[in-house]
Amino acid sequence: MKDWAASIVANDPVRIAGFMADEWVIVSESGVASKEQFLSLVESGELTHSAMDLVTPPRIRVYNDAAVLTGRVTNTAHYQGTRYDADEWTTDVFVKRDGRWLCVLSHITPVARS
Length: 114
Prior knowledge:
Elements: H1 2-9, H2 13-17, E1 20-28, E2 31-34, H3 35-44, E3 47-54, E4 59-63, E5 66-79, E6 82-97, E7 100-110
Parallel strand pairs: 1-7
Antiparallel strand pairs: 1-2, 3-5, 4-5, 5-6, 6-7
């Protein structure tokens, strides 16, 4: 998780892609975006991140060649020049392929404000 977060903050699409399976998607309140859509935004500079921090201990469950990681993450992103500070619950689903864990799905849910 730390290395993936570091690649996102580095805004390095090649490093980020190294953590993703080809079929990776992210699900958010905006809908579903593919790996290609996400990486093209990073590559173009339309989407950048300057911070990404895990603020809770991650909950990790391994099921043979699949794993689920859930945790609370804060991040600062800029999308098309506008700054966004997010506090989200994140769930990532990984599969083990050729000895490597690759993410196939990321789901983000904004933290409820009390």
